[in-house]
Specification:
single chain, 160 residues, alpha+beta, Immunoglobulin-like, three-stranded antiparallel β-sheet, 3 helices, elongated
């Protein structure tokens, strides 16, 4: 049986350095964050349908006090916000209301169409006779946008 002897200098010197452990931990953390974000992106809720009943109900939904505002973020990126209110004058409580925001260029060509929820289960839905405010931030609008208020169209309604 051969015995190995190490000098004091060899025993003090670690075989794998601390920077290797730190790099491994950071790589693992980065991979975990990436996989989580991929998972969340695939878990987006299905769009609320616009059934014949929902189409008939659209006339009971009233958008009001809608305005648009632009500002620059701390990264010098343009953020456009659409703020407003939606009222439910009908006789059904709603779980979800989604709208299309359609942005155009100066030639009338569509440059962006985005479907976004303005009422959701997370915000508590929308009861009969209730009015709620909404805020829609956009940071991906093309530079060719004509700077005018986009067209807002009810895209989906889900009843409770």
């Amino acid at each position: 049986m051969a015995s190995e002897t190490f000098s004091a200098e060899q025993r003090k010197k670690p075989r794998i350095g601390v920077p290797v452990y730190v790099a491994g931990a950071l790589a693992s953390l980065g991979l975990g964050v990436f996989l989580y974000l991929e998972y969340v992106a695939k878990q987006t809720p299905a769009d609320a349908p616009l059934t014949p009943e929902a189409k008939a109900y659209v006339s009971d939904l009233k958008l009001s006090d809608v305005d648009i505002m632009a500002s620059k973020s701390y990264l010098n990126q343009m953020i456009v916000e659409i703020n407003g209110k939606i009222g439910n004058t009908g006789d059904h409580a709603l779980d979800t209301v989604e709208i299309y925001c359609v942005f155009y260029d100066s030639y009338g060509q569509m440059v962006l169409r985005s479907r976004v929820p303005i009422v959701s289960p997370r915000t508590g839905g929308l009861k009969q006779g209730e009015t709620k405010t909404f805020r829609l931030p956009f940071d991906e609008i093309p530079d060719s946008w004509n700077q005018a208020m986009p067209l807002l169209v009810i895209a989906g309604v889900k009843f409770l």
